[in-house]
Design goal:
433 residues; Alpha-Beta Plaits; DNA polymerase, domain 1; Dna Ligase, domain 1; 3 domains; 5-stranded antiparallel sheet; globular; DNA-binding
Length: 433
DNA sequence: TCTGGGGTCCTAGGACCC
DNA sequence: TCTGGGGTCCTAGGACCC
């Protein structure tokens, strides 16, 4: 550790030029976890992903050397790297590793903003009594995570979250980079605009049209010009980002008092379909899944959104705000199905449908106006019974009758799969389609 | 066999209310 | 008569991130 005689800086953070914001990001997280116990795969290109019409979720650096990267269609990835080993993600294992990593973060500071399973912002200004500098915190975390999980991560240290995030990306793989305040513009300005966080394909194209390719170009363009082209908000934000100005603070999110804002589910058909019965059956399945997750999270939601993606990838959404909030499969499904009907599609080739519920509130605080035509104990009781059965017997134990179809004869012959519970909700699941 | 599934946030127009 | 402005909610779409 540090030599005893070293002069103590006025503030400890001065050792890193005032940097107390850190971004930590696992390297090729899904792929690293997939291969960590399989030495035979260490130097082989490995791709995590798959599914019938899927994309690459993560690729090892050996696979990236062939041009494979995440979000790439699997078909293309296989063409680029035919000898790659393809592995399906193991979300149970990933979430165990993720929890352990987050615990390591929280052992150095309570100010942790989780961004996803494998990355977070940390404000370590309060940790500088235990550590000499943010760099030391970063080194400690890197060593500890490797020790405990045998995966590497990269750390960016800066004075703002956005710069820290870019620094960790630059440090990859298995590195740590500090960008002190006085080096921020030298760090940012040579970057290509699309490297900025929040600049995707569409924005990059727009910026290129304006002749702006580097972050430095962006910085030296009058903010009014950017605002005219991109809108007031985006223009100002981009200009500020190009100078490393960022009023974002690291905010521990999703505390018990802050629920998710929406819960949804969508699914791409294995083959495009123009069969309305198939679509409605899928909407019912998705509604059941969403509603069950809502009830498990003890939230109700007020707005149901239907998403439809067509064969050519054009995507539309339709939403409706309900009179009362709900977490009921029936109500969500009925709304989604009605929105679908109102599209008036005729033999359109559909690639994907989705159901999402927004405007979530704590179920305990949700109000419900009793209607005269409504029995005191209706669907909600039935659905709670379904939840209990699913918890006990698994997801296939209870399904709405319309989802049984071909598997129904199996259910009848195999009571061990809790076939009798198909009676679950007594009626109605079958009504709408 | 091009292009997943989970989300968040922003914008913009129209309705509606005061 | 012919025209306010601000605030909020709803809806649709788009962009982006991992």
């Amino acid at each position: 550790m540090a030599e005893a005689a070293r002069p103590v800086p006025t503030t400890r953070a001065a050792a890193d030029g005032g940097c107390t914001i850190m971004h930590v990001d696992m390297d090729a997280f899904y792929a690293s976890v997939a291969i960590r116990d399989r030495p035979e795969l260490q130097d082989v290109p490995v791709i995590v992903g798959g599914g019938h019409r899927g994309v690459v979720l993560s690729a090892t650096y050996a696979a990236r050397a062939h041009g494979v990267h995440s979000a790439m269609p699997m078909t293309r990835a296989r063409r680029l790297c035919p000898r790659a080993v393809i592995i399906a993600p193991d979300f149970d294992e990933l979430s165990v590793v993720s929890s352990s990593v987050m615990e390591a973060f929280r052992s150095v500071t309570s100010v942790v903003e989780v961004l996803s399973m494998d990355e977070a912002f940390l404000d370590v200004s309060g940790s500088l009594r235990r550590f000499d500098s943010a760099t030391e915190v970063g080194s400690y975390l890197r060593a500890r995570i490797y020790d405990e999980q045998q995966i590497t991560c990269s750390v960016g240290v800066a004075t703002t979250p956005t710069v820290a995030k870019l620094a960790s990306r630059r440090a990859k793989p298995d590195g740590l980079l500090v960008v002190p305040r006085h080096e921020v513009t030298a760090f940012l300005h040579p970057m290509r605009v699309e490297e900025l966080w929040g600049v995707g394909e569409a924005t990059a194209t727009q910026l290129h049209r304006l002749g702006l390719r580097r972050v430095g170009d962006l910085a030296h363009t009058p903010v009014e010009v950017l605002q005219r082209a991109m809108g007031a908000g985006s223009g100002a934000r981009l200009h500020a980002m190009a100078w490393g100005v960022d009023d974002r603070v690291v905010t521990p999110r999703r505390g018990p008092d802050e629920p998710e804002r929406s819960i949804g589910s969508d699914e791409t058909f294995s083959r495009d379909t123009d069969d309305e019965v198939v679509v409605r059956r899928e909407l019912l399945r998705l509604s059941a899944k969403v509603a069950m997750r809502m009830r498990a999270a003890q939230v109700c939601g007020g707005t149901v959104t239907l998403k439809v993606r067509f064969h050519d990838f054009t995507t539309i959404t339709r939403s409706r705000t309900l009179r009362d909030t709900t977490s009921g499969t029936q109500e969500i499904y009925a709304t989604a199905a009605e929105l679908f009907s109102r599209l008036g599609l005729e033999r359109a080739r559909i690639r994907l449908v989705g159901v999402r519920v927004e405007g979530l509130v704590d179920a305990a605080r949700a109000t419900r106006q009793l209607r005269l035509d409504e029995p005191a104990h209706g669907w909600e009781d039935a659905e709670r019974a379904v939840d209990r059965a699913v918890n006990r017997f698994g997801g296939s134990a209870v399904r709405p009758a319309t989802l049984l179809h071909k598997s129904s004869h199996l259910a009848r012959r195999a009571p061990a799969s809790a076939g009798s519970l198909h009676a679950g909700p007594p009626q109605g699941y079958d009504q709408a389609p």
